[in-house]
Amino acid sequence: MIYRRLITLPRLILNVRKYSSVPDNDISKIPLERIRNFGIIAHVDHGKSTLADRLLEKTGAISSNQQNKQILDKLQVERERGITVKAQTVNITYTHDGKTYLLNLIDTPGHVDFVNEVSRSLAACDGVVLLVDATHGVQAQTVANYNLAKARDLAIVPVINKIDIKHANPEAVCTDLHNLFGLDPESVIKISAKLGIGIEEVLVAIIKYLPPPKANREAKDFRALLFDSWYDKYRGALNLVYVNDGKITVGQEIQHHSTGKAYPVRSLSLLRPNEVQVDELLAGQVGLIGCNMRSSKEAIIGDTVFIKSLNVPEALTKIKSQQPMVYAGIYPSDQSKHVALRSAIEKLVLNDSAVTVSIDSSPALGQGWRLGFLGLLHMEVFCQRLQQEYDTEPIITAPSVTYRLRLKNPKMIKSNNGKDMIELSNAALFPEPINISEYYEPLVRGTIMTPDEYMGQIIALCVEKRGIQEKSVNIDNDRILMHYILPLSEIILDFNDRLKSISSGYASFNYEDYGFHETDLCRLDIHLNGKSVEELCRIVHVSKAQKLGRELVLKLKDEIPKQMIQIAIQACVGSKIIARETIKAYRKDVTAKLYGGDVTRRMKLLKQQAEGKKKMRMVANIRVPHETFINVLKR
Description:
This protein has 16 helices and 31 strands.
């Protein structure tokens, strides 16, 4: 995939130097104590990618050029949206006090939906640069990323960016960092990544305050942590690893701990930022292994890679996988494209390990898959990459969440960890309410940081979304931090957009899983002339059923074409009808040919027409076009 990405961006490659100040073959001579593995973490749009560009320029990895913007954001979707969605690694060298240091930099995303990228990237780091915007200050995802770094006991270099902007207030941000995280204001570095101010200080701080990797080059057994992978159509699945023990050379045979499968090492590379071949990888380094791995399913994020031998070494610490929060169905626009879409999903899931895939089918849309994502933006980016990188045209159904149900009859349940529970996100599988004793829905703990002038409107929004306030803390005289317990189903669609709208963009939102809690759910059914349409049913909270039912019947009234019989569209909860719309039948003027005569002739024709329509209603089928299901089911 690296080669494919470079081919799609030829203009950028012309500005990338193949070698920095130290030849690639001499990197192996850099001792372990002069290696720093670190990541850049921040809230979205705080300037991580711009800082990465300046670090690459300062260390000579790329030339200083106006075209070199977001050099590590190689995906088309990243450049179109202006955000980082995929963590990228680059190996750079820097000379300080006459000594050459190897810096393994990982640029991470900032949005909450891509926390999995941050989490697995930090597994290969010994420290982080915590970047904060001087105009917006500490925001919700800043707090979440700081907690991720502290949970792994990583050293932290605090940096304030965008000090060149007119409304910047770095002193107030330093106060926030001290109040929230206990960081010494004197240790905070103030920079402007756009203008290149303070970049030298950041490099020196990385060398001084971040520790070298806790690796063992003297170990006889090679062990490495696989923390990223992607698919290349010429070389198969490529594995990005952090070498923890020993070394690896081309020609040796490696084995994966989880699968037990062995592969010969065909190539070893460093990313500088373009791929550069090397003869060996040593402990403490981050590099790319190509081993002709043809099946993308064999590269498991968090797996341990070692030299094939009779003695299987102990596995390194595994990366904790993130639990999907949002589910959606993905179907090919035409069933003849099913194989192509399946292949594209398998390759893209290799590059995005947070996505879960299971086979699904729909009478209206055919064979497809049900995919789990960390959030709505995560889902949108994944589907956009399917279209742009693999030239597919998938149909995406409306996102939903997973619910848990406790059934009264134990014989009707599927055992789940010894509990009498079933989990489902597909409303078509929803049991009869008489068989259900308890309903549970997923909740999240939301963190909202906002200026206090918008607090009243934000509280009203949270109450509307069935939120319960957990606590509220004043950060300073103008800003407040609120914690809310919110149903996940209420925030996955428009919560963040409405929050930004009512706060003029100043409020920030982040959330984390809070488990399942008891609630009151129901299945919302759609009936056409009294017959249930399973493809259109939904699982909703009882308090939201009437509003959603009204929206669905109105949309169906616009989408279903007029037919020879009258169509009654009903939204039902159990046997109760909560919303109804009617599509009138085509009408023919059977009396048009009459030009006079007795009125009984007119009445006779109208009576015959009424009897014919009555008979047609008894035998006719309602024709619902395929496009109608697509328009109603998709987002």
